[in-house]
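Figure S7 source data.
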Amino acid sequence: MVKLIIDTDPGIDDAMAIFYAVAAPDIELLGLTTIFGNVTTPMATRNALRLLEAAGLDAPVAQGAEAPLVLPPFTPSAHVHGAEGFGDIPAADPKAKPLEEDAADFLCRMAREHKGELVVCPVGPLTNIALAMQRDPDFIENVKSIVIMGGSLEEGGNITPHAEANIYHDPHAADVVCSGGDKVVFVGLDVTHRILCVPEDFAAIAARSPRLGGMLQEMSHFYIKFYLEVAGLNGCSLHDPAAVIACTHPELFGKRQLPLRVSCEGETSGATLAAEDSGRAPVNVCMTVEADAVKNLFLERLALLP
Ligand code: RIB
Ligand code: CA
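Tokens for the predicted alpha-D-ribofuranose complex:
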């Protein structure tokens, strides 16, 4: 059983990843931490609470940073995930409230309490993770691993020609996390672009899981419309779900070990770059994926939900 915390900016594919984690029999979801990106941080917190409420899971949510470490705050990408984060689904206020403790403190405490067992899966900008590393020098030692949806080594970017969106939105934080060594795993565009879900897949999920799968199907219309407009694809990449699946099924991903840095300025800002001469310890970057197996896990396990 993997003890998991997802650091998230929900977000349509974030919702898919969170519902997948709720459904997965080999994941114990210990909580969610929230971050800006697809939406603002307060919206991310509201949406995270709402998803847990819909799924009937009583797990804590800790609100994270509202701005990048160094860059100024930015306006979220409403054209990708909708003004409220879930496509055309209107906003709704959950009953539950977030913890008093902020995301970085919660992550540090949970890593201490579950020393050697906690897997952290960030699927948004890496600000909270960098803050946790800066606040607690033992954070990296205490976690089992940090499995990140982010970056691109050879695939090119999705927000600029060079950068993947989660890294682009806080490159300084991502560069801090790149210093974390062999417990750090990047599940980036090199693999997530290989895993595509089409409208028929979401229809199949909704047929087997009418309430929660149906919610994902409704969100997916907006997301796939964006993919059609920008990439001419009638389907979407399973970015955030792929990172969660990499936490329990690492054997489905082929990894390259190399020291990594993040460009923090100019037109390459947000690019993840090999840094052989940096003196940094190597991290793991996923370069190949058994895409059909990942997609089947996603479809089969979501179908377990009501
Ligand atoms: O580049 C893909 C990532 O950007 C995903 O995490 C998606 O949710 C967006 O935040
Ligand atoms: Ca995300």
